[in-house]
User: Fold these one by one.
Assistant:
Number 1:
Amino acid sequence: MTTISKNLFSFAKISHGFVLFSLFSILLFSVFVVGTAEAQNATGIIVEITTDKSQYTVGEDIFITVKAVNTSNVSQTLSFSSSLQADYAIGGKYRWSSNKAFLQFLTSVVIPAGSSRQWEFTHKPSDFKLDSGTHTISGEVVGHGSAQTTITVVSETQPPYFESFESGLGGWQTDHEIHCEQEIHPCLFEWSIERSTEQAQHGNYSLESFLNGINDDGTIWMEKTFPVPQNSTVTIDLSFQLWSEAATPVTQWPVVAYIGTADPELESDFTIVGYTNTVAGWQAYSHSRNINTGSSSRIWVAFGFGATWEVSRTYFMDSVTVTVPPAPPVIGEKFVIGMYPVEKRSDRMFIVSVTDQATIQQARNCYAYGQQNPGDPRCGRHISGQIASGNGGFNTNWSWHLIPETVIMPTASIEICDGSPNDVERDGVDFDAGVFCPWISYILAPGGQYPQISPSTAFTRNLTLGLRGNDVKELQRVLASDPLIYPEGFITGYFGPLTRKAVIKFQEKYASEILTPIKITKGTGFVGPMTMRKLREIRQTTSAN
């Protein structure tokens, strides 16, 4: 064969190979197109994404499941252009499939009618570390749909809670149980738990706890709730100190504790963690539990003691420490609460955040009712909730707030928790067993912003030393507008000696309008009608400017 013939033969082979390759490519492309179209035309496929829990600590593994569910009544085939069939991403910062190699050939999965196929992933901190906060995870069945879920990541540790009752009960509530109270002829059961300076393990105060054991029965305790992450297994640690007058090997009483998702009501709910009178003086007791929180967002913690001998005893309890995992920030819908009769006064308004969906709907309905009935906007329900210190980030102008998860709108409440915002400002978490349920409350406005307050209604009650409230803050703002009258300028809401001193200066500066008409020459520090009239005038002028 000549050289030319050899070259022609080689070219023929190359041409033949190229044709075959081209035909194979066209066929492969056709199969790919047909397969993709078939997958995209599949009906009844729903994509879901779940995680093993809703809250994690920083540095914890996250188990993610992406699922394709066939809701149709026929089998469905899902085709993919590579071995990558499912993927997940966290925000816009991380995608699992990035920088990974996948086989480039057609793959498929068949999902029978009413069945599903799932892909599981483990997200490790070494892949991408998530900081504290809320994160959105997107799951995808490639080319067939996607879904999202949200998780919360919290810091690994938080300081233990500590209470020694120096300024009140700190939100703790008293409770008791004795069997004979349930009988037809209830027994006499004498007991009390109150702050005292007679003994103290820390600071100057403790809880003096008296129990008459004449019935050879009965348990008394203190209880409080703490926020916890939902749908998580958490470890709760409780410790406290109890003082016994003397050590004795007989007539010892059980010291008890409780940790759980339900309010303890019975003696049988408690765990015996030790006994009284094992030493003279203070002794430490502790209790710990691992609990699956489920749908609960709060945990109950309690401690106390019971009677087993027919004698009366007094013990002291102090230095309570509770270690709980950090809980995610609570996101709720906010409402401004007013007090009937309708007056847009700063001391008659407060803001709540509501997380319960049924209560949110009730609040919306009550607001709509109030819009239709402005003369009396009360809808037959009122606000009620457990009090906590601080404004919670939403109840501005006050030093307290209602815990969002506890806020409800009942049609009736016991009278003991009725009152005004100023009453709660005065007593804090010790106001009437730590619950606030103003009967005359109504939904003034949705959202977390107070409505405009008319200057004419800014001062409506006499103010004097020792009072608290938003009207005291308004007083302090007007006084602070003149540095010569109130150079300190503290806006605290508390009418203390500095505020009284500033009021006296104010009254004497405007003596012709405040003091002279009532025939006195020196300021009194008492904010009455004449002083309020001038305060309104100045406030109105200041607002206009």
Note: The helical segments are 3-40, 357-372, 421-427, 470-480, 497-509, 511-514, 529-544.
Number 2:
Amino acid sequence: LGVKARVPVQVSLRRGEFDWKREAPHELDLAVAGTQLAVLDGFLPEPPHLEGRAEAELALRGRLAAPRVDLRARIDDMSYGGRWVGDVDLRSSYGKGGGGQATDAPASAKASTTARAEVDLVHDPSRTLHAKALLPLRVDLLAGEVEWLRARRHELELEAPKIDEVLLAPVLETPEGTRFELGAQLHAEGTVERFTAQLAAEGAATHEGRRVPLALALDADAAHQSLELLVGDTLEPWVSLNAEARASVSALLDDPESWPRVSMAAQVESRAFPLRRLEALMPPELQGIEGSLDLHAAIQGELARPSLSGTLDLNDGALTVVPLRQRFESIEVGLTLDRDRMRLSQLEAWAGRGFIEGKGEARIDAERGLVAELDVVALNLPIRRPGMPRMKLNAEFLAQAEVNGEGAALEIGIADARLDVQKGNASAPKSIEEVEGVYYVDLLPEASGAWVAGAPAGMNEPNTRPSQPSNLRVVLRDPLRVTGPGIDMSWDGEVSARASEEKVSAKGALECTSGHFSLLGNDFTISQAAVRLPEQGGLMPFIDLKADTDVDGVQITASIRGPVSRPTLSLSSQPSYSESDIFTMLVTGSSDLDSADPEEVKARAASTLVALSSPGLQAQLNEALRVDKVGLTFGDTTDQPILSVGKQISKRLYAESQYHFNAPPTKNSGQVSLRYRFAPRWSLETFIGDAAVGGVDIFWSLAFDGKLSKALRERREEKRRREAEELKSEPEPAPATESAPEPAAN
């Protein structure tokens, strides 16, 4: 860092006075070389994570009220957020002739009010950006003021021959399999009251080998603006947009609140547009979009109250909604635009043998904003969740929504609802091995509202909340009837939630008015049941249910509590028994515990733990078995639980037995495996079972997790400690005799 300054001062040593001549000319030269941008992360509240090497030279001449400034800066090997940007070169000036005058010009020369800047970005020889701007300003460093001179001439130019996903990678996350390349030119000049601007961009986007041409043209002046967008071939585009606006830029700058009164007109045309072209733009929750779109729409009038006309038709569509585990096919949508209203005349979709149909309307209200109503009927709609029974839903959903500047509100009324639980379960996923220091997060962690215990800082950060309040209300207008093999109950009530920047709050509950269900072949009568949203925090529903049954005169109570994604089961009885004994009674249907088949109890316990966790039961089973490992996995379906019990027999030998309930003929029902560690990183494993299925494997492994490293360090420290103690305990050597030669001095 080098600084050279020339400051006009008058000093009177006799009077002890110091007078800074503020109105006189000043000089300042500042040079910075070899500065690493990474140092900025330590000084900024929100580090930009910039890297690179910067050099800059700044020269200031003249009066502080009207200075002349030249700035030259260069950044080599710049990266942002760990992604390569390139080399940046900046040249800017302010003052006489926009910086054309030499910095050693006479101080009396009159400074202009023009700032000029040129920027070059070179990512590589084929990816470059060049920008040039001229901006009229009045800078007064003495008063600390900067004034924009709107009535003076402006200029802006941009040349980008190749803009693609590589160049924009530091600021734009492109979906996997998507590529794009655009060439763009921008030129604008004039005053705010009289200017012209033209932008032209042309290129193509490619997703999974499909190429889609793109073209964009913007033409604007101080009172009229037009935009043309083409997606597809120029002669027969899939989508075309032509829009015009008559906006006074000067008036908008004077009164920013006047934008709703801007007059505009637009036309959108689409003929058999293949929706699969939008796959790259879809969120990860929506996959496999198919179908064709026909759109003929026109919009005109003021932005606040536009008049709409036209039609939208979606034919033979298909879409997979990942959170619902549902594939919708044969989707047909018909939408009519009429002035300030949008009417949904047709909505049809099939999911398996289930069917959805609906209709609705949306309108723009001067006081309420966007108001929408939707009526959807679901007939035999299948509901599939891993580890849960197959279900079919029949219901009518009545939704009302309002969106305006004050926030959004959505109310959903559910009528004539019936949930039919079918026999048999959906396939459950394999269990994931738990490893210390590794945390498994799904694609949408905010959807579950789960809090991962012991996770690193930042993983459990609150999710981004809406800037405007959002209100949700769900009302069961008719009792929800849940029926099926071993279950019959009715639910009623309502819940509401409010989300804002400060917090998420909820109130209300869905309560079970009457019903019963079957657990392990026993009919439980529900005494109380409710589903609530947390009053503060996430939106994961919590269930609180109690039910009673009788087994040979023993009154048994089952309590199911916790998030609906993984509730906890606890068992109690009168007279009092342990949870493992109560579970045995439920499995056998008898209070005679000695007559129970241990293998059947284990298998039924594994099947129950598919959707419910029981810490008390699990702890008692582990204590009773006296083993080192108890694991639970599944075969092809949840009807095939696999219970594993393992024991470390010696330092090198580990034995494990498995019981595969309802195993297919080609797999072992009972299986024994051995693992022998014959070298530090080598082990031999073998298994055999009752279906004569067996195998032998040899493994080489390397463990590098923190827990093992800590154990190794502790083991080494213990070894050093023992060696030190052994050295201390050794007898001291006998003293040397007088005839022994003395050691040589060093």
Note: The chain is about 10% helix and 55% strand.
